[in-house]
């Protein structure tokens, strides 16, 4: 029917190939990292390890790089078509390594903000941003440890992997969105604290506020696009015994 043809045509128009989508997403992630670095360098005084506000500046850079961009890359590993055939172990190692790298950067980012607070006599863990951020990191650590035990250790039984897999996938997307929410709330909190006492107030929307708000929107868009890619049925790795999987193997092999 005409309606069915129109629906098929509109669906085809919205069908974006995975690799160009990933290239765009990678460029967006690099842009987020470049912008948070530029913000801290240009408006916040740069970087140092002396316990001053320049030590704090490592916190947003490491958090955006690790907890959002690198974590998002780790989440998308199994959506790469090359992972749909052949041994899974190399891709498991890559997925786990990217997630571990993200976790290491995140811990260093936490260390930077705690070092800054302690050197300045500022209390720790008093804001919603800090509660949400630390909760996200703790959940991330549990996720990585459970994933390592279930999917990388050879003695994990198959029934345990099958039981835990949907839980692992769910919390993967959840942690990413919590990371985005933590970063966005942290940007807003920093602007409220910084744009006063001799600088143009936040409510007057100086250039720094426009720049940082744009950064927050780009981080949000990055997170939403990663979650959308994870939820897209046609980009999911077929189960090893499913007809779709056998068709993929035949196509790749032939």
From TrEMBL:
It holds the Pfam family Cytochrom_B561. Its EC number is 7.2.1.3. InterPro entries: CYB561/CYBRD1-like (IPR043205), Cyt_b561/ferric_Rdtase_TM (IPR006593). Transmembrane reductase that uses ascorbate as an electron donor in the cytoplasm and transfers electrons across membranes to reduce iron cations Fe(3+) into Fe(2+) in the lumen of the late endosome and lysosome. Reduced iron can then be extruded from the late endosome and lysosome to the cytoplasm by divalent metal-specific transporters. It is therefore most probably involved in endosomal and lysosomal cellular iron homeostasis. The chain crosses the membrane at residues 12-36, 56-78, 98-119, 131-155, 167-187, 207-231. The keyword Heme applies. GO terms for cellular component: late endosome membrane; lysosomal membrane. Its main location: membrane. Its cofactor is heme b. It is an enzyme of class 7 (translocase). This is Lysosomal membrane ascorbate-dependent ferrireductase CYB561A3. One of its GO terms (molecular function) is transmembrane ascorbate ferrireductase activity. CDD domains: Cyt_b561_CYBASC3. Homodimer. Residues 236-254 have a biased composition (Basic and acidic residues). The gene is Cyb561a3. It is a multi-pass membrane protein. Residues 235-254 are annotated as: Disordered. It catalyses: Fe(3+)(out) + L-ascorbate(in) = monodehydro-L-ascorbate radical(in) + Fe(2+)(out) + H(+). It is found in: Late endosome membrane; Lysosome membrane. Keywords: Electron transport, Endosome, Glycoprotein, Heme, Iron, Lysosome, Membrane, Metal-binding, Oxidoreductase, Translocase, Transmembrane, Transmembrane helix, Transport. The keyword 4Fe-4S does not apply. Residues 24-231 form the Cytochrome b561 domain.
């Amino acid at each position: 029917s005409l309606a069915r043809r129109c629906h098929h045509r509109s669906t085809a128009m919205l069908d974006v190939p995975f690799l160009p989508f990933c290239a765009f997403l990678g460029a967006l992630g690099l842009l987020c990292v470049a912008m948070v670095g530029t913000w801290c360098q240009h408006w916040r005084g740069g970087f140092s390890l002396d316990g001053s506000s320049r030590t704090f500046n490592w916190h947003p850079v490491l958090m955006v790089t690790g907890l959002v961009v690198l974590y998002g890359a780790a989440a998308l590993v199994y959506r790469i078509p090359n992972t749909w055939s052949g041994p899974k172990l190399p891709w498991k190692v890559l997925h786990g390594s990217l997630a571990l790298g993200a976790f290491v950067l995140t811990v260093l980012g936490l260390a930077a903000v705690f070092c800054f607070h302690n050197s300045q006599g500022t209390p720790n863990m008093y804001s919603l941003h800090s509660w949400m951020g630390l909760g996200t990191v703790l959940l991330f650590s549990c996720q990585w440890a459970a994933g390592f035990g279930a999917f990388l250790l050879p003695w994990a039984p198959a029934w345990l992997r099958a039981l835990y897999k949907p839980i692992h996938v769910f919390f993967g997307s959840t942690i990413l969105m919590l990371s985005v929410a933590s970063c966005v709330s942290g940007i807003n909190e920093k602007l409220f604290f910084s744009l006063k006492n001799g600088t143009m107030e936040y409510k007057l929307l100086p250039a720094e506020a426009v720049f940082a708000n744009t950064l927050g929107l780009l981080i949000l868009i990055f997170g939403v696009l990663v979650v959308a890619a994870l939820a897209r049925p046609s980009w999911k790795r077929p189960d090893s015994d499913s007809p779709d999987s056998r068709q993929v193997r035949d196509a790749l092999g032939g």
